[in-house]
Amino acid sequence: MGNGRFISTFGNVEKVSDDDHARGAMHQSMETYKGKFIPATASAIKGLEKVRVKGLGLGADKVCVICMEGFEVGLGADKV
Fold first, then answer.
1. What is the DSSP string of 8-62?
2. 59 within a domain of the structure (yes/no)
3. Single pTM value for the model
4. Containing domain of residue 65, as a range?
């Protein structure tokens, strides 16, 4: 644990580590951040490399993690 700070809450003293402080700041940041998704342009999609699915890793799903569409070994796909 890193160097901690002591905070007082209504007479009670509690040690807060730097790690706890960083986790709290990260949690607060995630609550207030609003992501903005920008779709790819048609030209960017057309420019993707065409590949053939050769195999899947152990325990891999046969579903694209981006579009959630199914695919099979041996079929063509766009490489992202």
1. EETTEEEEEEHHHHHHHHHHHHHHH------PPPHHHHHTSEEEE-----TT--S
2. yes
3. 0.42
4. 47-80
Write the pLDDT tens digit of every residue in 14-71: 666 777 878 888 888 877 777 788 888 999 989 999 988 887 765 667 788 788 888 7
- Asked, for residue 40, whether it belongs to a domain, the answer is no
Q: Which two tokens stand for residue 75?
A: 């079929």
Contacting residues for 5 by C-beta, under 8 A, at least 6 apart:
15, 16, 18, 21
Q: Are 25 and 13 spatial neighbours (Cβ–Cβ below 8 Å)?
A: no
